[in-house]
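Can't paste images in this forum, so I'm doing it all in text. The chain is below; anyone willing to post the predicted C-alpha cells underneath?
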Amino acid sequence: MKQTATKKILNSISVVFPAYNDGGTIPSMVLTALIVARRWTSDFEIIVINDGSKDYTAEVLDELALHIIELKVVHHPVNQGYGATLRHGFSLASKEWIFYTDGDAQYNPLELENLIEALHPGIDIVNGYKIARNDPLHRKIIGKIYHYVSRLAFGFRLRDVDCDFRLIRREIFDQIKLESLDGAICVEMVKKFQDMGFKFAEVPVNHYHRQYGKSQFFNWLPILRSLWHLAQLWWKLVVQKEHIA
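Text version of the structure:
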C-alpha cells in the first residue's frame, strides 16, 4: 500500500459499478478496481449493481464473487434505470469514500489513482473530466449540446458535469437526498453538491471507445425523456430551490 499524505485522507473506499448488459467489460472493470484499491488501503469493497441485464452480466458477476471476497453483487430482477441503480449502490456503500464509474469500460478504473492523488484536506469530491470524448460524431454533438444546456441552465462551474468518474466523500449522502431514476442523476448530484458548498477538485481522465454493447442514452426516446427530466430538475433545483430549503 502506498504510504503518502493522501493515504491518511483515504482510509477506506467503496467502489461502485452500475452495470447493464456489460458482460463483456465488467470483469476487467472489477479486476482493475481491485488492483488500485489494494494499492491504497486494505479497507475496501467493490459493489456491482446489475440492473436487470439481459446478457451474461449476472453469470460473470456471480462467478467473480466466488473468487473475490471484497466483491458484493446485487441483481435487479428488472431494469430500474441508471439513477435508481446508482442510488442503490451508494446506499450500500459503507466506506469513507465512494468511487463510481460505469461498467462499460469507457473509463479505466486504474485512473482512480489520479483522483486519489488529487485528494487534499478540505476536498469533498474529485470530479473527472474527459480529455477527449471517444464516441461517434453524432454522440459527440449530442453530448456537447447536453453539456452546455445543463451547464447554462444550472449554473455549473465544473468542466464536465457528464463525466461519470467521481470520488465522493460518503458522508455527503447523509446530507443530501437523490431522487432521479435515470441519467439526470448526474446533474442532480452535482447541482446539490455545489449548492451545499462541498469542495471539488478536477482531474483529466481518458475516455475510450465502447467495445461491447451499446449506449442506452443516444436514442431519440431516451434523449427526449432526459430533456423532460432535466426541465423538471431545473424547476425543482433552480426555481424552487427545494434542496436548499
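The domain at 9-239 is CATH 3.90.550.10 (Spore Coat Polysaccharide Biosynthesis Protein SpsA; Chain A). Residues 220-239 form the longest helix (20 residues).
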